[in-house]
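Journal club side-thread
Mid-discussion, someone asked how the predicted structure for our own chain would compare to the paper's figures. Pasting it here so we can look after the session.
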Amino acid sequence: MTTVHRYVPGIGIAVATLLLAGAAQRSSQPASYRGWSSYGGGPEQLRYSSLTQINRRNVAKLEVAWTHDTGESGDLQTQPIVAGDIVYVYSPNQRVVALDAATGNVVWTFDAKLQGGRGPNRGAMYWGGDASTPARIFAGIAEYLYALDAKTGTPIADFGTGGRLDLRQDLGREEKGQSVRLTSPGAIYKDLLIIGGRVNEGLPGSPGHIRAYDVRTGKLRWIFHTIPRPGEAGYETWSKDSWQYNGGANSWPGMALDEQRGIVYAPTGSASSDFYGANRIGDNLYANSLLALDAATGKRLWHFQFVRHDILDRDLPSPPNLVTVRHGGRTIQAVAQSTKQGYLFLFDRANGKPLFPIEYRKVPSSDVPGEVAANTQPFPTRPAPFSRQLLTKDNLTTRTPEAHAWAVEQFDRMRSEGPFTPLRVGQPTIVFPGYDGGAEWGGQAFDPESGLYYVNANDLAWTGTLAPDDAGQSGRALYLRDCASCHRDDRQGTPPQLPSLIGIAERKSRAEIVAVIQKGSGRMPAFNSLQQSALNAIVQFVLTGEDVPTDAPVITPTYEKYRFTGYPKFLDPDGYPAVAPPWGTLNAINLNTGEYAWKVPFGEYPELAEKGLKNTGTESYGGPIVTAGGLLFIGATNHDRKFRAYDKTNGALLWETTLPFSGNATPATYESGGRQFVVIAASGGKSRGPRGGVYVAFALPK
């Protein structure tokens, strides 16, 4: 196994200093984190375990204990949860599988057999039941939320309708036009199941209201309107009728729960549409916000908005972490929230007071007709950003002279003015870090022993451009309006995240394409409100490139004058990032001081490493976990298929192994039969290589 020590000059700190700094914190933390019964390891989303059987001294001896091959391939992002001696996971096709925690043998499988039931789901939810009600697994599959018997996988017949909830209901809008999926778990507080969901990012879009349901019956108990209605606080920050047709402001990344206080912390995404907000003038509360809600009633206690009037898709990408820190000589229970921009914010979790100063700085205005960008945006003064903020010619790639010359030529055609620079019509704008972060959905980990907070960060540039939405009434026009924001005007997409549609007729039948458009699949939402003539015209254009007229009317309230043309990464002609490395980093931040403890490049391209270009870092999707054994475990990297263990105090690489596919998911650790296991999903979903769907569990030799 590799034992490479990597340090960044000037920011290393001694192990003893860290342990002393954390001593005051340990007494206020729960005594034990030995299980992994919910997403993030527990309701606080610490991604921390107090297990020590696997530790710095013996981690190099880890071996494969068991594997479970789902027999499917796709973008598998699930973090397993563990209850008793059962591990609960998803397959790429959203089958729910219960595995024996010690052997990986299948205990039961639930297959809803839904059309459109495919794509990433980051985890199920477990409720332990009570004297009258058996334990349940709650699983989001397509547009439904199922309640399953934890022992058998059988749907609970008296929950909702036939054992499931239809997530398109209870939103206050016509059900047929909604598209909602639970791709990240919510939170369970006493007998309440609190959920958000993923919704359309264009128009028409579904509202991202946060809802609480009874865990036994599935009855709606409360709802918080993230797009406020007339008479509700925040209504004045939108256009007059936004509550009727704008969408988004949805809590898709997952939530954290302070069980003692009875507060649920829900991060939200941007309002739709993502890149042009002329029909939602104002700051748009509660989009791009952290909401602290009374878990019993849904009443807002406090909030903080990270992006005012977002027009760059700067969703909050991951659940917050409920941490305990030392500030001003006091122990404070706090909430930490990372952002796509590469910022980390820290608040007193009781009242929302920032623990490090936040400055509101003037940002560039928009020159797009009808758009009114916010004048100022919030910037934390500490910690420093964990991703670079401004791309200049000085930090373009030098991988080869040819790649550098190409990057300079392209850069000269683009606008690059730093954070919060709005997109323009006809000229590409650099978005740095890109639309996927900075921080991404994999989440962050916190070590209560030392006060260190761990975040893997992407450090790539993407670009964005607006175009007039005036193509008329035809298959191509409808494609440009509804599909090009993901698959691009030229149908090339941004593989593997957003697939190319070129040659799709060789891969899918017409019926399959119709089903995907109507029902959605993976990241793609359902477009179930299209009239038949519009659907036929889009399908014909996607299959053949032939532009067929249609008499389907434009829906006036959601019509936009400008549209987003796609999500291209700024890559050189060979497919590598056009910016200088590092292209991804792993960071440890001391939340007591706001200073970095260590920072290392994270990931590599094997073919470049063979040529001597090592430690470049890469994009990563999936997050870390940290243990009392002194270790940080993380997969996540897109291209090298590695699963790694670092010394949590200094970033030294202690162990690594190669997975069958890239591990674009967050691992989990647990104890069963006296052995500690570390398990991760491997699928290759974000890589350019082969895909699968395998869970791999590691343990020390018996």
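Post-session note: The chain has a mean pLDDT of 90.
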